[in-house]
Amino acid sequence: MDLQLAGRRLLITGASSGIGLATARLLAEEGARLALCARDEDRLRTATADLGARTDVVTASCDVTSRASVDAFVATAVDRLGGLDGVVCNAGRSLMRSLDETTDEEIRDEFDLKIFGALHVIRATRTALAASDRGAVVIVNAILSRQPETRLAVTSAARAGLLNLSSSLAEELAADGTRVNSVLLGLIDTGQWQRRFAESGADDFAAWSAEIADDRGIALGRFGSADELAFPIATLLSPRNSYTTGATLEVGGGVHRYV
Ligand code: NDP
């Protein structure tokens, strides 16, 4: 099946690692032209160095919590790619702490990252996406947005806000012909979890993560991989998926306790 992504001009935030990087790789294989950002530009360039041989790739340092930084990145992307057809709001991380352990400033930072990290990008790209024949936004969010967890209290609240925002944006941007959909993740083996594994003192990632998967009630009994997220994201970006908007796609390995 041809997803008709060849030549599409797509922007991904948080593309130096994990889900963003895996998505960039898949889209490059499909022949899409890419604008990629992360805060650490050296790490981004190193991680994506091989993609330039396949397709046009624009890389830039950008902090999605800064409107000015996002505006500058988007302006460069639109200029270099000649417009935009799709955006993946992916940059971020989770704050794993109970409310008791979290300062007010950390709470504000978390809301800033989750809400403005997507909103700045959508505002900055709106005109370019409206000019596309089939503009699409994919917001990378988490199942936590519907099922909060105690040690992820602030992240869960911010994610719920982002999910509601996505539904509102899907209605508002429909007037431009732009679709807005969310992918809700379960537990995915990326930089975030590798950092937690390193801090845990455990020595076998497979056993450590299988125990967490079991504890969380993941039917498939394991974490997902970043590659397993790249395909659902690509299908939501595809112009062939032209009647899907305001939707949420759960990719969580069958987390049955959320049913
Ligand atoms: P990684 O840590 O592997 O990658 C995160 C990426 O985001 C990096 O490229 C990082 O680069 C970038 N980034 C972080 N903060 C910013 C910022 N302020 N501005 C621009 N770029 C930023 O994480 P994942 O691939 O796991 O995470 C991708 C998304 O999925 C995140 O939003 C995460 O919260 C979400 N998610 C992940 C889950 C999981 O289990 N892995 C579960 C639920 C949601 P740099 O640090 O250089 O900026």
Automatic annotation (TrEMBL):
SUPFAM superfamilies: NAD(P)-binding Rossmann-fold domains. GO terms for molecular function: oxidoreductase activity. Keywords: Oxidoreductase. Signal peptide: none annotated. InterPro entries: NAD(P)-bd_dom_sf, SDR_fam. Belongs to the short-chain dehydrogenases/reductases (SDR) family. This is Short chain dehydrogenase.
